[in-house]
Amino acid sequence: MMPAAAERSFVLGCDLASPQGHNVDFDSLGPEGLQFLIPKGAQGERYVDPTFVRNAREACRTREFVSAYLWPEPRADPYRQAKHFASSTASTCSRAR
Prior knowledge:
20% strand, single chain, alpha/beta, elongated
C-alpha cells in the first residue's frame, strides 16, 4: 500500500508515449498514486508522438503537474529539435490556476 501523499517525501509520476498504447485510462491511474504525468511530445526534428495530444489533454484533466518531453536524436541539430518540440507542444494543455 502506498503511503498518503502527505506522509512521503517524494512524488510519483511516469512518462507516456505511443508504446504504451492509444487507450490509456487516465481515470484508473489513481491520483493518489501518480502526482504527475509527462507525455512524449516529439522526437528529433520531425516526429510528433501520435498519442501526444490525447495524452497531454487527459493528463491536464486528471493531474496537477503535467509537462512534456522531447526524445532527442544525437546526430540532429539541437536548435531545430528544440524549435520542433516547442511548436509541436505549444498550447496543448492550457489551464488557468
